[in-house]
Write a structure and sequence with these properties.
- It is a single chain.
- By secondary structure, the protein is mainly α.
- Helix content is 69%, strand content 0%.
- It has 2 domains: 4-16 and 117-196, no CATH class; 30-111, no CATH class.
- Helix 1 (4-12) packs parallel to helix 7 and helix 7 packs antiparallel against helix 9.
- It starts with a helix and ends in a 9-residue tail after the last helix.
- It comes from Chryseobacterium rhizoplanae.
């Protein structure tokens, strides 16, 4: 089995070695959500306070990452933003009712920039449904991490160009799958392919 480290570098070296200045994105427009869901005056007050709080925290994380100089660690920033969204959801659940909360979580999910990788829920499906051994699953994780790093390292090359970003995503996805295929048995890889068949590039928000 090809070593995890070898797989990682084979993917990561595919990205252009460029510095990333770190662009500031607009973020989620929560005013749009308020046009879709009717809130009471009290709910709206708390809603505005919570969303403003977490937007400020996200901006602080962004500025801290940007201030490091050199290549911005977009993976670490993405992890922090995921954690903030989870915390925001917990706090928002004290304000919104069940149906409103379901719509809020869906709205945030659809309008947030996701980390370009198989997420934890999908990884768990891959491990369970494809019946992977621990060694096989380690390779899947390593290839997935390498894919994310390679795509983020090329950010300055494709920034602002969704067509080019899609080309890079597909290139690194092909390499990710090739690395995984070498480590999995044919039967396990066939199951893996069926699970990830709908995973495609999504335009950068």
């Amino acid at each position: 089995m090809k070593s995890i480290k070898t797989i990682f570098f084979a993917l990561a070296l595919g990205a252009a070695a460029v510095s990333c200045s770190g662009d500031k994105k607009k973020g989620i427009d929560y005013n749009q959500f308020k046009t879709e869901v009717k809130l009471t005056a009290e709910q709206e007050k708390s809603f505005n306070e919570i969303t403003a709080k977490y937007q400020q925290l996200q901006e602080q994380n962004f500025q801290a990452a940007k201030a490091q100089g050199g290549n911005m660690d977009r993976i670490a920033l993405g992890i922090k933003n995921e954690e903030l969204r989870a915390q925001q959801s917990i706090e928002m659940a004290t304000v919104l009712d069940g149906p409103q909360m379901e719509k809020f979580n869906k709205f945030v999910d659809e309008n947030s920039r996701k980390r370009p990788r198989y997420d934890n829920a999908l990884l768990e499906r891959i491990k369970t449904e494809a019946q992977l051994s621990e060694d096989e699953f380690k390779v899947v994780n390593a290839a997935n991490d390498a894919f994310e790093k390679a795509f983020n390292d090329a950010h300055d090359v494709y920034h602002g160009n969704n067509d080019l970003a899609k080309e890079y995503w597909e290139k690194f996805d092909t390499q990710r799958k090739a690395a995984i295929q070498k480590a999995l048995s044919p039967e396990h890889y066939m199951k893996f392919e069926a699970i990830v068949k709908d995973v495609q590039f999504k335009g950068r928000k």
